[in-house]
Amino acid sequence: MMNTRYTTGVIRVRKIKAYCFVALFFIAVFLLTMYAALLALSVKNVVLRKDLESKITLVRAEVADMESEYIKRIGDITLSRAEGMGLFAIEDKDFIERRVLVGQAY
Asked: Which residues have C-beta within 8 Å of that of residue 88, sequence separation ≥ 6?
């Protein structure tokens, strides 16, 4: 006859091994799932970054075109042309300043 104390100890060890195996299995599944999710997220971020970089390139090209147009047109502005459009130069200039009070909020 086997010792019942020995068999209950063996059964208890087998149960602990089974619980550990199940726990490790679920941990492995969780880690693989998180790895796949983070990998998908990084791929998505790379695609979005590439898309934003192409949009930035387009905006920079538009700004460059606008700057060149501005440089072309700035030479066309003269005092005689402005006076012909009804604009005039102001001789006496009055500047308004806001006093800054130390220790008080605006």
From this structure: 82
